[in-house]
Each structure stands twice: as C-alpha cells, then as structure tokens.
Amino acid sequence: MDTPTPKPQTGNDRKPGGYGARPPRAGGSGRDGSRRPPRANFERPKPEFDQKMLDIRRVTRVVAGGRRFSFSVALVAGDRKGSVGFGMGKSMDTSLAITKAFKSAKKNMIKVRLTKTGSIPHEVSAKYSSSRVSIMPNKGRGLVAGSAVRDILAFAGIKNVTAKVNSGSKNKLNNAKAAIDALSRFAIKRGIAESTEAPKAPEVLS
C-alpha cells in the first residue's frame, strides 16, 4: 500500500514559530531589542544679525586661458535695534561670496542713535555717486520707503520715517550706500560709551 506524499507547506500553512518563520523581537525598536532614546528637540540659536541679499550677479573676466566666472553679492545685515551694515563679496562660489559679504557688512556696521519712538532726530540727506537720498521723520505713519533704502532702514530698526530717492538712479547698490551715508550722521562713534550719569568731580588732595 502506497503512502501519500506530503504536500509542501506554503506561507499561509506555516505555523507561527515554525521552520522559516522570523523569531519575534524582544521589546524595543532597535535591532538588538533595546529601546532608542527619545530625540531631543534641538533649537537653533538665533543669529545675532539678520541678513538679506540686495543683489547677486555673475561677473565674467576674460583672461589668457579663456573666461573666468565669479559671483558678486551685495548684502545688508542688522539687528533691528540700531545697528546696520552694508557689504559686498565676490567669489567663484555663491555661498563663499555671501559669507564674504556678511563679514564685510559686520566690519562696516554702524550704530545709529534713535529716538524713543524709533525714528531719527531730524531730516537728513546724502549723495553717493548719482544717487540722492533724503530721510525725514514722520509721526505715526510708519516706514515709508522703497527700493534698497527700505531694507537698510528696516534692518536698522528705524520706524516712522519717510525716505525719498531724489535722483533718477535705480541702482540698488548706490541707493543703499547713500542711505548708509545718511544714517552715519546719527552714528555713535566707537570708543565713546553712552552714559547718563553725571561726571564725578575730581578729588582734591589736601
């Protein structure tokens, strides 16, 4: 009498824990069964100065071996509390050009003396190349300006002023430099500490 040949087991017929079944893991989500530590919520520290690119352009230089391309970046940086600076950087890499421009802006940064309302003490105007910029205080109207002059004033934290570009120049770089030149009239010179205390009288030696 012939014995029936057993049928091969399929995946559905296999019992849990049988031949070919994957053994259950011990507790945890790691490969070795250990639990992973919870991820900590790391918050990036807020930068000291905010920055914004005013202009970026590609520069071509013709040399003996051909052409060399580089990028020129114009950038404004400030803390919105009276400090603002303008810088430019050039490099063959965009990120390196931005870094150079930011360092230049920090190097040329000025501290502007503002009023209690965040405005400027009086009207001021400046000229750089073909750009003429006038900045005048206004009461309660907010920041009224355009082009690169608005970015300079905003990053300096100046409010309630009206700025006008009196020339027909639309060059952002010249307008930004003219605005910086105008604000430098209210700049606090380095090395002079602000103090509201009255100077002490010198002691007289008897």
Give me a quick take on this structure.
The chain is 17% helix and 28% strand.
Structure in words:
With 206 residues, the chain is of the alpha+beta class. Helices cover 17% and strands 28% of the residues. Strands 1-2-3-4 form a 4-stranded antiparallel β-sheet. A hairpin with a 2-residue loop joins β1 and β2. The termini are far apart.
Structural key phrases:
single chain; 3 helices
Low-confidence spans: 191-199
Please estimate the helix content. 10-25%
Describe the strand arrangement of the main beta sheet, using strand numbers.
Answer: 1-2-3-4
Query: Main sheet, how many strands, which sense, barrel?
Result: 4 strands, antiparallel
Radius of gyration, taken over Cα atoms and rounded to an integer in Å: 33 Å
| Form type | elongated
Q: What structural category arises from helix and sheet content?
A: alpha+beta
N-to-C SSE series? EEEHEEEEHEH
List the total number of helices.
3
Mean pLDDT: 81
Could you give the distance between the termini? 136 Å
What oligomeric assembly is this protein in? single chain
- Beta fraction: 25-35%
The number of distinct β-strands equals 8
